[in-house]
TrEMBL record:
Cofactor: FAD
EC number, as in UniProt: 1.5.5.2
Protein name: proline dehydrogenase
Biological process annotations from GO: L-proline catabolic process to L-glutamate
InterPro entries given in the database record: FAD-linked_oxidoreductase-like, PRODH_bac_arc, Proline_DH_dom, Proline_oxidase
Pathway, per record: Amino-acid degradation; L-proline degradation into L-glutamate; L-glutamate from L-proline: step 1/2
A Pfam family: Pro_dh
Entry-linked PANTHER family: PROLINE DEHYDROGENASE 1, MITOCHONDRIAL, PROLINE OXIDASE
Catalyzed reactions: L-proline + a quinone = (S)-1-pyrroline-5-carboxylate + a quinol + H(+)
């Protein structure tokens, strides 16, 4: 198969899994299956206790963490409030266990699609608890339709809280502008994991990589704390070199990777003295997250299959 053919096959697989990730019927069924179909390879469990246990093991290896109670398709107030309650309990568990761990969450879990004020109030309750325990909270970025609302709520929250940041996706044409507007805010920078229109997102992989490196350098040079979320060793090496050449201290940035992906790389970077933070998802609403991981790299399909066979 030619290089072009391989690329086209990858795009077909990516689009297929992204399509599946939005299927509400399959998402509902997945909750009944439990962590089957290979999902246990990338999600350590469904409870807070299982997440904390995984974090403790990673901390022992010199890795920091952030946990995320997975959840999608929240369309009523009761579910949104319940999700916020769960986030608060997770923060308390982090504090009580003494682990090195942050919290990640999605605003749609907290009612963004229901009532913006409800979502904001849920976030304030979570951030108050996080502030009490000196824990940082990261608002994960979702698809383009939620981008402006997410940044608006972040701006409102930042008037009262400094322990909150968000994510910027490099495949969006507006990424450079958003990073500039968020100077001084702790950002996780990623390539992007949703299927977006060519009107708003770069479709060429090489150009996405170029823009990704550009916004990383942009945020680092502004003196802002930067989390580089990537498993691409070429990107990681270029960031290391750029930081050295520009006297950017290791305390100003960190590398972030997913739970159980490229574990050897995670440990080797940590041993070099860089902060490496592992994204640890948990919960029974794992389906959408798992499908997007399969969409990111065809190799992940084989990875998941090995877990299923086990």
């Amino acid at each position: 198969m030619t290089l072009k053919g391989v690329f086209e096959m990858e795009m077909v697989l990516r689009n297929f899994f992204l399509f599946l990730s939005k299927n509400k019927t399959l998402n509902k069924s997945a909750k009944k299956w439990g962590l089957k179909l290979g999902a246990k390879q990338v999600i350590p469990g469904v409870t807070i206790e299982s997440a904390i246990e995984a974090v403790e093991k990673l901390n022992v290896q010199g890795l920091a963490c952030t946990v995320d109670h997975l959840g999608e398709f929240v369309f009523n107030r009761e579910e949104a409030i319940e999700s916020a309650d769960y986030c608060v309990r997770t923060l308390e568990a982090i504090a009580n266990s003494g682990v090195n761990c942050n919290l990640s969450l999605k605003l749609t879990q907290l009612g963004l699609d229901i009532d913006r004020n409800l979502c904001r109030d849920n976030m304030k309750r979570i951030l108050e608890t996080a502030k009490k325990h000196n824990i940082f909270v990261r608002i994960d970025m979702e698809d383009y339709s939620h981008l402006d609302a997410t940044l608006d709520i972040l701006s409102e929250l930042r008037r009262e809280y400094t322990n909150v940041g968000t994510v910027i996706q490099a495949y969006l044409y507006r990424a450079e502008r958003d990073v500039n507007d968020l100077k001084g805010v702790s950002l996780r920078l990623v390539k992007g994991a949703y299927k977006e229109s060519p009107e708003v997102a770069i479709q060429d992989k090489e150009k996405v990589d170029e823009n990704y490196l550009a916004i990383i350098k942009q945020h680092l040079l502004s003196g802002s704390y930067t989390a580089i979320a990537s498993h691409d060793h070429n990107i990681i090496d270029k960031v290391k070199q750029f930081a050295e050449e520009n006297d950017i201290p290791k305390t100003q940035f960190e590398f972030q990777m997913l739970y159980n992906f490229r574990t050897d790389l995670q440990l080797s970077i940590a041993k070099e003295g860089y902060t490496v933070r592992i994204y640890v998802p948990f919960g029974n609403d794992w389906y959408g997250y798992f499908m997007r991981r399969l969409a990111e790299r065809p190799q992940n399909v084989a990875f998941a299959a090995r877990g299923l066979l086990k």
